[in-house]
Amino acid sequence: MAVIPGDIAQAFIRREATVGPVTSARHRRTAMIYAAMCILGLLPTILSMSPALQAAGLGLWIPGGGFLAVGGWSILLFVLTLALFALAVFAWFGAGMVIAPVIVWLGSALLAGKMAGEQTWFLAPYFVAAIVAGIGIYAYRRQQARKTAEIAKLEARKRSIATAIAEAIEVAAPVPTTAERELTPDDLASSRYALDRALQPVGQMNGYDKVDQFQTSALRYQINHLGYGLGMLQCMYTPSFHGYLSQAQRNLIELYLDRRIWGYWLWESAWGNLNLTDPDPAAKDNIMLTGWFGIQLCMYMSNTADRRYAEPGSLPFRRDIHRVFHHDAATIAQSVAKNFLDSEFCLYPCEPNWVYPICNHYGMTSLKIYDRVFGTKYVPSVLDRWLKNLDTEFTDYSGSIIGLRSSLTGIRFPFPAADAGFAGFENCFAPDRAQRMWATARQDLKYIIKSDETGAKRLSIPGKGFDFGNYKSGYAGVYAMLMDTAREFGDYEIADAALRALDRDCGRADDGGILRYSKGSNLSNAMAMRARIHRRDDFRRTIAEGPPEASLRGPILTDAKYPDVLVARAFSNSDDLDLVLYPGAKPGPQEIRIERLRPGAKYAMRYGSEHAFTADNNGTASLSVELHGRTPIHIVPAS
Amino acid sequence: MPCCAFAAFIVSQVVLGFGVIERFLLRSGDTLDDTASNPATEWHLIGGTPAPAAPPSSRRLGLRALAIAASIEILLALGAAYGYQLHTTHHLHHHDLGSVASVPVPVCMR
Fold first, then answer.
1. Is the pLDDT of residue A527 over 90?
2. What is d(CA A436, CA A414) in angstroms, rounded to the nearest whole number?
């Protein structure tokens, strides 16, 4: 890909606004509604109406404000209501419970009206007005300070962006060739972490973190990331091995249909979209399911050419014995595309009302792979508008994408977001933008690269960190994400620094042939597994290109016992099968099965010496192989 | 007395609320032990470590804490309702006494 730094930098420098027309309209609407509440709330006081109405009216200015009018001990209820309101906003943010802050605000106003005595506290209106003004001034100043800081950051970035992009391109390693593709023993041990979890019977969830099903620790994200890791591994290292690797991916897909995984939507649909009758998980909103799951489904189908999940109704989301939401890969993709087209922001919510740009990146990536696998044109039909709105509605003054915006109010909510986190996805559908984004992220990362006591470079972030996979302290997820993105852009220096930090700080453990990070969540471990096997452009190629065409036609390894036979490499040039196997338990003989051979044809299996065999009439053959450490095996048609 | 009970209820709600926020959002009550391991990562499919014999999971602890908090909340709410009822009765009583006081009969109110 020929990239000219100046061209990429130009778009970045030109951008001027961050509050786009849709956000502005939402801000105006929110302000008008609030102004109407204030006017309505003040009227009873101005018109000397009953104390009950005056108290209720003041309650419209600020949650619990009416209790100031009630006076006496009830003033303490004002503080309590503010605390409750904060919790309600947290429930709104965390689980899309739109009704929670509304109930607390209006409920407290009604209660204050009910509690009001024969007269109100005469100073209450002044106090309420002063508090509202104080909050307004504080919010305005804070916003201005943030804007100033972001503009300063933009100016600094503008000065260095061209150099940064040139540098990022210069240090990038080349895309590895097929011949170079082979999992190392550490890679295999890491992949066993994911395989162990995926190969347990569908329905069991041993080895997962079970905290909540609404936010980032939810099981669905753990399943998705295990699936992405295995899918990318198959595409890049073992496209001609199906067997337990494909089974593992199917297990994860089928586990995802369990109501314990997606049942959160029954609640969110009710208290967020006020939809009690038709809480279809792949209809309105919920890109955190459709976008993420869509990638996983299509990765599997792209790697294996197995189209079982494209069959109508092949993905039943069963609510109970009476109600099933029948979906398939097509309806999942259609849900993403339709929501993009229907949303004024183009980007659309995860939880009702909350638009997360990161989940929308997953959504666009899911359409990219769906388009390739099924020949649709979803991405070309929506990408320009999507990117324009991303730039104008979801980008801050420094040029970075924001974490989260409320689609109802237009308010930007503080939520961590990193350019590096977006760059890997954009590499799949907007590679020039991705390169610019990675270059700016890389500049920031330079500040956290330190030398350890041996002089080796490692990432070093102060503090105890936060693991989004289980809400505990730790940097496993952050290091894994940075390593993953750095590898995607071929920056192996930063990736190696992240890997060293992971190994040093996050409790690397090698037990039972499995490599894991004991101080990380399951989600972080899944991300670390993918990061470890990641090489330049692997994610983009998995999404936008898929496995080599020949591997979809040639012989495949279909049966090998897990974990006795570990597959480090499996490619075909359409006639042969090139394998590298390791014993997973103990050295010795193992049975393997090959399919898609030419029926009745003679083959030679070369490993050490040459062994001849003949494929049966179905094009299959069962073979015994001796595995002692790294065992390369080449199966070729007999000449 | 009923007024004081009502005030105590409100104050306790505020204190409990801050306690909950501090514990669950800011997690200040936790010992942020850098060396803490995640038992979920220890699980192996075959052989090796069996499913960890669960040190009480955060979920279980969370449910226990929730049950205790709910019990306290119910008690406090009942107390508050009782206090509020007495409070209103108290005011009505004052009102009645006021009516009585308006007639030319000396009444010792306190």
1. yes
2. 24
Looking at the DSSP bridge assignments, the partners of residue A318 are A324
* Residue A140: Cβ-neighbour burial (10 angstroms; 0-12, 13-18, 19+): exposed
The CA distance from A383 to A28, in Å, is 27
pLDDT band at A417 (very low <50, low <70, confident <90, very high): confident
Q: Which of A453, A455, A448 is nearest to A475 (CA)?
A: A448
Average pLDDT over residues A369-381: 98
Q: Are B20 and B69 in contact (CB under 8 A)?
A: yes
Q: Does A197 sit within 8 Å of B45, measured CB to CB? A: yes
* DSSP, residue by residue, A95-147: H--THHHHHHHHHHHHHHHHH--SS--TTHHHHHHHHHHHHHHHHHHHHHHHH
Q: Which residues of chain A have a CB within 8 Å of the CB of B6?
A: 73
Contact between A625 and A611 (Cβ < 8 Å):
no
Share of chain A above pLDDT 90, in %: 87
| Cα–Cα distance for residue pair B25/A330, rounded to 1 Å | 39
Q: Is A210 on the interface with B (CB under 8 A)?
A: yes
- Structural contact between residues A294 and A363, judged by C-beta atoms closer than 8 angstroms: yes
Chain B residue with minimal CA distance to A210?
B59
What interface predicted TM-score (ipTM) does this complex get? 0.84
Is residue A231 a contact partner of residue A542, using CB atoms and an 8 Å limit? yes
- Residue type (1 letter), A442: R
Whose CA is closest to A242, among A491, A525, A551, A490? A551
Domain edges within chain B: 1-29+56-110
Number of H helices, E strands in chain B: 2, 0
Residues of chain B with Cβ-Cβ distance to A473 below 8 Å are 32, 34, 36
The pLDDT tens digits of the residues spanning A516-525 come to: 999 999 999 9
DSSP secondary structure code for residue A74 in this structure: G
Once rounded to an integer, what is the mean pLDDT over residues B37-45? 93
- pLDDT, mean over chain B: 56
Task: Quick: pLDDT tens for A20-44.
Answer: 899 999 999 999 999 999 999 999 9
Given this model, what pLDDT does residue A119 score?
A: 86
Of B6, B32, B38, the CB nearest to A73: B6
| H or E element at residue A281 | none
Residue A79 makes CB contacts below 8 A (sequence gap 6+) with: A64, B14
Residues of B within 8 A of A209 (CB-CB) are: 38, 40
pLDDT of residue A13: 47
* A625 three-class SS: strand
Distance of alpha carbon A287 from alpha carbon A407, whole angstroms = 14
Task: Output the six-digit token pair for A97.
Answer: 């419970």
Contact B41/A208, CB-based, under 8 Å? no
Domains in chain A with CATH codes: 21-143 (no CATH), 549-637 (2.60.40)
Q: φ and ψ at B70, to 5 degrees?
A: -65, -40
Q: Which residues contact A182 (CB under 8 A, 6 or more apart)?
A: A237, A568, A569, A580
CB A318 within 8 A of CB A257: yes
Minimum-distance CB partner of A206 among B25, B37, B51: B51
Tell me what the pLDDT averaged over chain A comes to. Answer: 94
Using alpha carbons only, give the angle B18, B21, B24 rounded to the nearest 5 degrees: 145
Residue of B nearest to A562 (CA): B46
End-to-end CA distance of chain A: give it in Å, rounded.
40
Q: 3-state SS string over A532-596? A: HHCCCCHHHHHHHCCCCHHHHHCCEEEEECCCCEEEEEEECCCCCEEEEEEECCCCEEEEEEEEC
Please report the DSSP string for A148-181 in residue order. HHHHHHHHHHHHHHHHHHHHHHHHPPPPPPGGG-
Look at chain B and count its residues.
110
pTM of this prediction? 0.86
